[in-house]
Amino acid sequence: MGIVKISEQMHEDLRLASNALSRSINAQAEHWMRIGMLAELHPELDHSALCRLLIRAEQAGGLQLSELSALAAAASVARGKTAVEAGQ
């Protein structure tokens, strides 16, 4: 475990969000980091798709980044098929 230095403003934002969402400050920071990391790796997925991806990963026992990326790629393909089918 390491120490990450963040600005006072970010810490305050974390404190507010963690209280509102009934998470610890550390859990809120980890959530934002997971979402941000996945959003950068898979910009084609929206927030809702990323959250569904994390839920599926948790149901599978928690997945590593490479496994999450494979799930995200599959989700992206599935979303593309859905969009194509909707256009037909």
From TrEMBL:
Pfam families: ParD_like. InterPro entries: ParD-like. It comes from the Bacteria. This is ParD-like family protein. It comes from Pseudomonas laurentiana.
